Amino acid sequence: MFGGEPKSGLDCNVLVLNKHYMAIRIVGAKRAFSLLFRDLAEVVSLEKGTYSNYDFESWCEVSQLRREFEPAGHDWVSTVNFYVAVPRIIRLLFYDRLPRNEVKFNRRNIFARDKNKCQYCGKRFPTSELSLDHVIPRSVGGTAVWENIVCACAGCNVKKGGRTPKQARMTLIQKPLRPRHNPLVHVHLGHKRYSSWKQFLDHAYWSVELK
To answer: How many CB atoms lie within 10 A of CB 78?
Structure first.
């Protein structure tokens, strides 16, 4: 889910670490449970400031206790017989490749970089009400690169038209740059639900790819 509350436990996001505890991607809870059930991953759980590891079976057992004593502290998935807490972090047991450095140039990452704000008026809008604007218009040689694409609301986009900001007497609220880290990670880190991710995302070279 981008920028909103998950509708159910299965809509939550899970941080995936490689064998060496390096963050490599974010996946949905369904994918995380599939990896756990097939013994391809284990849960990494923050407990009183330290991290503990659980295989799928032991995580199910721990979930029963947490359901009883701290139900509000987790998101839950129900089975026919019991509830399972959605893990925040899982670690792949047999995968040791390093995380990618490059942030993908796509619509979702541009919206995240600009925090869903129109870069001309500074107001925040739902994604459906924003478009992508070429700062230097394509008609005069502007290209589709990080440094020339920004979010713009409908009103500002119409006002600017096929002109440069200077020609339209408009000012960007910030200079568009290529992000060094995946901007979506910071969207998630702003929510208490994903606070346990922080320790694994503090290194300058992390770039977590969403799948």
So the answer is: 11
* SS3 of 3-32: CCCCCCHHHCEEEEECCCCCEEEEEEHHHH
11 Cβ contact partners less than 8 Å away, ≥ 6 residues apart: 1, 28, 29
DSSP string, 147-192: GGEEEEEHHHHHHHTTS-TTTTT---SS-----SS-HHHHHHHTSG
All structural domains of the chain with their residue ranges: 9-101+182-210, 107-160
Nearest to 82 by CA among 103, 96, 68, 93: 68
Q: Are the C-beta atoms of residues 12 and 28 closer than 8 Å to each other?
A: yes
Pairing of strands 149-153, 209-210: unpaired
Output the six-digit token pair for 94.
Answer: 């047999």
Give residue-wise pLDDT tens across range 130-169: 999 999 999 999 999 999 999 999 999 999 999 999 999 9
What architecture does CATH give domain 107-160? Orthogonal Bundle (1.10)
Task: Name the pTM for this structure.
Answer: 0.57
The helix or strand, by DSSP H or E, that contains position 45, with its residue range, turns out to be strand 41-47
- The set of residues, in sequence order, having a beta carbon less than 8 Å from that of 119 and lying 6+ positions away, is 133, 150, 151, 152, 172, 173, 174, 176
